[in-house]
């Protein structure tokens, strides 16, 4: 990780399959990384967030399936957000509190909910 990354108490990652960009703050975040996780520059994670990169094969529950998670540049993940396997979050985006991100979220939006969906376009820079 770059020296400009700030790691706050509560950060936990299950493997080394993580890339983090410059000037990113990793708050109380848990990453379960069975597949690569890429976090861009100038991202911020607030409280009690989780990134999960694995799921199970429904035909054989003993088989884990890893899918990468990608978070763009200048993204704010607020509080109590769960990001599920295979998701990409675009640049300049905010994910609202309590969201469960089940699918890709585009750049330049405020998205929230369970499942997370775009609420409105924003100019977040």
Outline the structure in words.
The protein is built from no helices and 18 strands. The protein has strands at 6-7, 12-13, 18-20, 25-26, 29-32, 37-39, 44-45, 49-52, 54-57, 60-66, 69-71, 76-77, 82-83, 88-89, 94-95, 100-101, 109-113, 116-121. The strands form five sheets. It has a five-stranded parallel beta sheet, with no helix packed on it. The chain has a five-stranded mixed beta sheet with strand order 7-12-15-17-18, with no helix packed on it. The mean pLDDT is 95.
How do the strands and helices of this protein lay out in sequence?
Layout lengths: L5 E2 L4 E2 L4 E3 L4 E2 L2 E4 L4 E3 L4 E2 L3 E4 L1 E4 L2 E7 L2 E3 L4 E2 L4 E2 L4 E2 L4 E2 L4 E2 L7 E5 L2 E6 L4
Parallel strand pairs: 1-4, 2-5, 3-6, 5-8, 6-11, 7-12, 8-13, 11-14, 12-15, 13-16, 15-17
Antiparallel strand pairs: 9-10, 17-18
Report the sheet-strand fraction.
over 45%
Summarize the amount of helix as a percent range.
under 10%
Total beta strands: 18
- What's the alpha carbon Rg, rounded to whole Å? 14 Å
Can you count the helices? 0
Q: For the terminal residues, how far apart are their CA atoms? A: 23 Å
Model regions low in confidence, pLDDT < 50 over at least 5 residues: none
Q: From the helix content, strand content and strand pairing, which structural class follows?
A: mainly beta
Order of helices and strands: EEEEEEEEEEEEEEEEEE
**Main β-sheet, in a few words?**
5 strands, parallel
Shape: globular
Mean of all residue-level pLDDT scores: 95
- Strand order in space, largest sheet: 2-5-8-13-16
